Amino acid sequence: MNDSSQVIHNVKKTATRVIQRYLGLLVEERCPNKESWIKEVARIREEACRRKDEEPRYKASYEAVIRQIEHIGLENVDMSSWDLTALRTIVLHIHPLEIWLPDAQYKLFVDIVNDKNYDSHESTNEPWEYVKPWSYEALDRIERFVESADGVLSRERYEGFSAASLKIIQETRDANREEFDEHFSLMRDLERRAKMEARDIASSSDPLASYGAAFKKWLSRFPEDRHSSLLLWHRFNEALVSEGYTPAASNLAYAYYFGDDITPIDYSKAAHYFEIRGIENLLWDEKIQYAGLHLRGLIASASPSKGERILSDMECRSMNLRLAREYFCGRWIPRNYTKAAALYEASPTERATPESNSSIMEAQDYANLASLYANGLVDGISPDEGRSLIADLKRRLRGTSSTIETYQNEEGFTFYRVTRS
Questions:
Q1: Tens-of-pLDDT digits for all 421 residues of the chain?
Q2: 54-87 as b/e, with b when 16 or more CB fall inside 10 Å?
Q3: HEC sequence for 159-180
């Protein structure tokens, strides 16, 4: 699959060629012969060497100017020898041949050479929905820069420069249009295929097995284009939900609850998909997240009593410890130290069988419970019991790589935590 970095590269290449040619024509008009230009290049190098020490913030930019001169030699340098970074430094800071751009042209020049999107083609793949309008605006800006040369260059030079530049700009528009057509045509085709496969999965004799065989393909359809992969993944899950395969709703709820590269956080939509999945079918962490939306009032239909009921129904030997941790830290639900302490006290301290992998109280859990006791946050429990629990925990950790230290939480309480050296 083609990627948006090629479009960015095309625009950057066009900007570079147009600006190199324009500055080259200015040099032709202001420099009577080769020898005078060589002297000017020597002055550019001298000025860049002086400024890189005086202006360390721009040292890398000045070094880019110097490096190219030293690489190809004074006598071989012209304006096409430098890239946009170096040309920006030369025009904006060194002003060879007293080149001062008119105000309108200066602004266009700065906007073109400072465009941060040029760096993206070398590292990341920007979303197509962003790159497409950006490329139109960037090429329009370059075209206006060409027009701004009218009256600055001689008539003959301007007409030649304008004709050649507009031809390059149009060729870039055409090349980018082909990239856009290829990408969006492919995406439309893949979205149709995702809907068809979702229909087949939902109507199969074993939807779960069919989904298991297909989901990885849609989860990372394009390993080097995360944005497009996520878009297809969402479309696939939306199609599954519309076909009645509700387990896919959990994927959409997760996307809207936490957000991702293409999905802003939207708690109302997260709650909608949690409900489509069915509260009784949610995983334990999803139930806590959904309950928290009600308890925190993050959705229009928030019902604190509903959130409390969900969490209360979850309480059992296998879930108490997970709930205690959530009430203690307040990650997905409001912090409740009384609930945390009660659930810690009701949590298992050893597994029912050696083969069991169920959660049991760990050192940090004991430290959390001791923190609540020691700060008097549990009715009927003396702070001394917290200090006693910590003393016992220190004895148990003696000879291990773990130690106990204190910290101030955001509410100003002094709590304990277990650290590993």
A1: 447 888 999 999 999 999 999 999 999 999 888 999 999 999 999 999 999 989 988 899 899 999 999 999 989 999 999 999 899 999 999 988 888 899 999 999 999 988 877 765 455 567 888 889 999 999 999 999 999 999 999 999 999 999 999 999 999 999 999 999 988 898 999 999 999 999 999 999 999 999 988 888 888 888 777 888 889 999 999 999 999 999 999 999 999 999 988 899 999 999 999 999 999 999 999 999 999 999 999 999 999 999 999 999 999 988 999 999 999 999 999 999 999 999 999 998 887 666 566 688 999 999 999 999 999 999 999 999 999 999 999 999 999 999 999 999 999 999 999 999 8
A2: eeeebeebbebbbebbeeeeeeebebebbebebb
A3: HHHHHHHHHHHHHHHHHHHHHH
As a whole number of angstroms, the distance between CA 265 and CA 30 comes to 57
- Measure the CA angle with vertex 178, ends 177 and 183; round to 5°: 100
Prediction pTM value:
0.69
349 close to 333: Cβ distance less than 8 angstroms: no
Side chain identity at 334, as an amino acid letter? P
- Name 194's bridge partners: none
Judging by DSSP bridges, how do beta strands 402-408 and 414-420 pair with one another? Answer: antiparallel
Burial of 321 (0-12, 13-18, 19+ CB in 10 A): buried
Contact indicator for 94, 47 with CB cutoff of 8 Å: yes
Answer left, alpha or beta for residue 203, where phi above 0 means left and psi between -120 and 50 means alpha. Answer: alpha
**DSSP notation for 342-382:** HHHHTS-SS-SSTT-------HHHHHHHHHHHHTT-STT--
Pair of tokens at residue 419: 């650290």
